[in-house]
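Reopening: structure tokens for the adenosine-5'-triphosphate complex, inputs below.
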Amino acid sequence: MLLGRHRECGVLDGLLEDVRAGRSGALVVRGEAGIGKTALLEYVIGSASDLRVARAAGVESEMELPFAALHQLCELQATGETVSKRRIDTRDDLTPQETQIARLARDGLSNPEIGARLFISSRTVEYHLHKVFRKLGITSRTQLDSALPSEPAA
Ligand SMILES: Nc1ncnc2c1ncn2[C@@H]1O[C@H](COP(=O)(O)OP(=O)(O)OP(=O)(O)O)[C@@H](O)[C@H]1O
Ligand SMILES: [Mg+2]
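Re-run output (same inputs, fresh job):
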């Protein structure tokens, strides 16, 4: 139950009304730590049960990357993956992005080449590959071929 946020809730309700009317919009919620930003997001999600809600969370290590959150949203859209599915995924499953990066590395592309193709920095490629290696229990790119789950037939 939100206390004393009538003005903010009104703005959020207005945004939802716009969405229902087919108008897009963006809203930035900012404020000091603990001021109630997440509580407001929860309020708006709670009022949007008739709408499809997609969520993406920023990661500090990707802070300098433009459109990192947008990329995450496109990925959710492309794979049809839902937030709840992501939650019950086992920790060792590769994310769609990790799988994509792992396949490109397996096919012989270097980190900068993978980065250029996916519009991310080679440092971020390295970061994802590190997680891929850990999840697959391997230590080098040459092991990717046998360690990668087989691809569904096209
Ligand atoms: N208007 C409110 N009425 C009642 N409880 C509130 C209100 N705003 C925030 N709270 C409560 O205060 C606590 C902190 O709020 P919240 O987590 O939303 O802050 P935040 O701005 O997202 O913080 P952070 O910057 O750390 O992410 C939560 O337990 C939340 O439920
Ligand atoms: Mg918060």
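DSSP finds eight helices and no strands in the chain. The mean pLDDT is 84. Marking as resolved unless the reporter disagrees.
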